[in-house]
Amino acid sequence: MDATGAENHCTILAIAPSSIEKGLVWVGTDDGKVQVTRDGGKSWTDVTAKITGMPKGAWIPQVKASTYKAGEVFVVVNNYRMFDYKPYLFRSRDYGQTWESMVSPSQLGDNNYTLAMVQDAVEPKLIFVGTENGLFVSLDEGKTYTKWTNEFPAGVPTMDLVIHPREQDLVIGTFGRAIYVLDDIRPLRQLAKEGTQILAKPLHVFSPPDAYEVTFQDPAGILFPGNAMFQGENRRSGAMISYVVNKPEEKKEVVPAAVKSDSKKGDKKIRSKTGRS
Questions:
Q1: pLDDT by residue (tens digit) across 205-221?
Q2: Predicted TM-score of the model (pTM)
Q3: pLDDT, tens only, 180-190
Q4: Long-range Cβ contact pairs of 243-247 (< 8 A, separation 24 or more)
Q5: Contact 60, 34 (CB under 8 A)
Q6: Strand partners, 31
Q7: Distance from CA of residue 179 to its chain's centroid?
Q8: Contacts with 29 (C-beta within 8 Å, 6 or more apart), sequence order
């Protein structure tokens, strides 16, 4: 036994108060317990046994109370400390009485345990899931997932996800590979709401966020820092316009064989000329 007594597993890892119902609070622990109170902590109900498919004693790094329905909650579970690397994410819509699985190894991979998730506060079908090997996005409330690799490391542990309420950006915290910001998730919201058939249009422009014309002035101070300062990449200047362009295929005129054969029958000699030396 470790001298620190760490095997006691007495730590609450996640606390999620509801923004809809006063007194409703969810907690997740390091020994696989999910508990809920609806009276501000005076009494608690352990709903762990009702979560079908959750491994016993697993860690619960995140619990997310829904911003749409009071009884809805998402629970992120991982069990890699017991050499179980499968992804686990569960949802309840009735205060923990019944549960459904939101991910599977066939969707995210066998060795790709879950670390974080966030549901968009504007479009409920839009869900982001952080895993040991990257970021996944769902446009249909978890039925299907797509791995996000555009300017984001494909295999980085994605530890936390937050959607900025003003900028409408996805802020991504990783393990050892810095913080990333996915600027303006409004196009993904529209795809989740209206369907991916938008991507097949010849031309589609998504509603752009507000843009401002500004003038910058360098502050007084160091003008030539050399390699002594590190500065993260900022959002590019100018208006942010997201669009879809599908160039139409060039159509080649094809003459049917029947037409070709008929045209030969109509050929007539108009004139011929024989030359002499």
A1: 999 888 888 887 766 66
A2: 0.82
A3: 999 999 999 99
A4: 243/203, 243/204, 243/205, 243/206, 244/198, 244/199, 244/201, 244/203, 244/204, 245/202, 245/203, 246/199, 246/200, 246/201, 246/202, 246/203
A5: yes
A6: none
A7: 15
A8: 9, 11, 12, 13, 35, 60
